[in-house]
Amino acid sequence: MTWVAAVVHGILLGGFYALLAAGLALLFGVMRIINLAHGSLALVGAYMSYLLVEHTGWSTYLTLLPVLPGALIVGYLLQRTMLERSLRAGQLVPLLTTFGLLIVIANLLQRLFSPDVHSLDEGSIGTAAWQTTSSLAIPWFDVLTLGIAVAVLGGLHLVLRRTQLGRELRATAADADTAELLGVNSRTVYARATAIAVATAALAGVFYGMRTGFDPNQGGAELLYAFEAVVIGGLGSLWGTLGGGIVLGVSQEIGAQINPEYFAIGGHLVFLAVLVGRSMAQASRIRYALRRFA
Amino acid sequence: MSALLTVESLDVRHGLLQAVRQVSFEVAEGETLALVGANGAGKSTLLRAIAGAHRPAAGRIGFAGQDITRRPAHRRARAGIALVPEGRRLFPELTVEENLQVANASRRSGSWDVDTVLEAFPLLQPLRRKRAVSLSGGEQQATAIGRALMTNPRLLLLDEVSLGLAPVVVEGVYRSLANLIEAGTTILLVEQDLARAMGAADRVLCMLEGRVVLEGLRGQLTREQVTEAYFGLPRQEATA
After folding, report:
1. Contact A164 B83 (CB under 8 A)
2. B58-63 and B155-159: which strand pairing?
3. pLDDT tens by residue, A11-59
4. Structural domain boundaries enclosing B183
5. Cβ–Cβ contact B79 with A under 8 A
6. Domain limits for position A226
């Protein structure tokens, strides 16, 4: 039964990773921009929510109403002022820029909020759980997180596949020059994609703040799991990211079930196995193609 | 005859290489102009500069009475300039239909939409939901032309539309061009095949090493004149 519990908790944890990875799946998976500050921007979302709760006494969920539109604006401006310039200088430059941003954000947050651990109140749902058997309790908050992850990734999927903005996004990612020739304003398209990505990051950050305590230096660590979820799920596929998050969560919980110290290593091992497996499959496809030509 | 496109003393550079030198010409509304010349004569660069994909070093480009020299490419597309780029440049992971729909970004309405394009290129009808990467060369070319038409252009720029296609496919492409010309679309086309270019166009412009060396109406130019200009070698010198 404990194994079943590990898998169930792993799936729920995966929902959280998928939520954190949703913005990355769009920016990194589809637009091929590596944003190392994604986790830090999530933290900024959490701190903004904290600030609003402190000053207004609102519930954490209500703070999303101003935080998410604010994050959209931040994302748009971030692209237009910083990322756009660095993208023009080549693929590696955004890596440096966003790494710098990560450090700047961490230090700013430390200055403004001290290095102490803060947390956000998750309301009455936070302690409620569905006790199925004596050994398996399903916390409602985790179910809510998974549900929101599914909604966000599903929504992004629909935007990409069914709307004009989605088609322009995919066309610009593939070939920005040609998209421009068809009337697509590639700068605006990139800025909108970043705006959406930063808003989902802020949403994930607020949920992160309700799950556990957060401090200014956690941006980088959480980012790693989000990247792993995107890569396991396959670049460019939003549903894949949901699957990737769940695979990661389940492997971590199963690792922890074997030995509590194996939590992180369980996820990393599966991530490595997926990478190796995928490159071997690619190699065999190339060999097959070569044989057909020979 | 009012000029739709005016190019004045245009210079375009690729780094140190000056690909287009002091080129001036006009295209009238409804006219079909062919740009011929050897490889590297600067034809594609000139088209790309007109479409806004390449910024000119000097000179002026006017379109429909406005100076568009400094306008970004997407605003030129919205004003009614469409380029079918060399090598088709479809979005490989998008379906044929999605490739066409991207051009809705030009926000130009007119007689061309997904349905009329598929009607004009019936070979695309069954391929609608197929990804562009899986199409044959001819199917890709039809999609690329259709995609440019989706912007309902006033000026259509065609760059080497017959390159790499089987003769029978080229025949089909030019048949659909003839329909467009008949419908009054203004066309500027770059073509390696002299006979094709002189067959389709009202007027021919020959480029050599970045300059316009010969210009004339279809009936006024002989094949020999164009061939000489094309290679930059008068016949008598070559045989002497």
Report:
1. no
2. unpaired
3. 999 999 999 999 999 998 888 888 899 999 999 999 999 999 999 989 9
4. 3-239
5. no
6. 2-123+133-293
Is the alpha carbon torsion for B188, B189, B195, B199 positive or negative?
negative
Using DSSP's 3-state secondary structure scheme, residue B154 falls into coil
- Whether A180 and B83 lie within 8 Å, measured CB to CB: no
B73–A164 CB contact, under 8 Å: no
**Any idea how long chain A is?**
294
Within-domain flag for A181? yes
* Rounded distance between C-alpha atoms, residue B141 and residue B139, angstroms: 5
Do B98 and A184 make contact, defined as CB atoms within 8 angstroms? no
Give the phi and the psi of residue A180 in degrees, each rounded to 5. -55, -40
Query: Looking at the domain assignment, is residue A98 inside a domain?
Result: yes
- Write the CATH number for A251: 1.10.3470
Number of independent structural domains in chain B: 1
Identify the CA nearest to B85 among candidates B36, B50, B37. Answer: B50
Q: How confident is the model at residue A290 (pLDDT cuts 50, 70, 90)?
A: confident
Burial A224-239 (b: 16+ CB within 10 A, else e): ebbbbbbbbbbebbbb
Counted across chains A and B, CB pairs separated by less than 8 A come out at: 76
Residue A260 in domain: yes
CA dist., res. B8 & res. B26, Å (int)? 9
Nearest CA in chain A to B108: A183
Which runs of consecutive H residues, i.e. helices, occur in A79-218?
84-88, 93-113, 140-162, 164-174, 176-181, 186-211
Question: By CA distance, what is A167's nearest residue in B?
Answer: B102
Residue A294: helix, strand or coil by DSSP? coil
pLDDT at B239: 43
**pLDDT tens per residue across span A170-220:** 999 999 999 999 999 999 999 999 999 999 999 999 999 998 889 998 877
Sheet of B203-208: strands edge to edge?
Answer: B81-84, B155-159, B186-190, B32-37, B203-208, B211-217
Enter the ipTM.
0.89
Distance CA B197, CA B204 (A): 8
Q: Note whether residue A236 is domain-resident.
A: yes
The secondary structure element, H or E, covering residue B209 is none
User: pLDDT tens for residues B158-181?
Assistant: 998 888 778 887 887 788 788 888
Name the residue among A201, A22, A219 with its Cα closest to residue A102: A219
Q: Are the beta carbons of A170 and B151 separated by less than 8 Å? A: no
Out of B89, B93, B151, the one facing A170 most closely (by C-beta) is B93
Query: Is the pTM value of this prediction over 0.90?
Result: no
The number of distinct structural domains making up chain A is 1
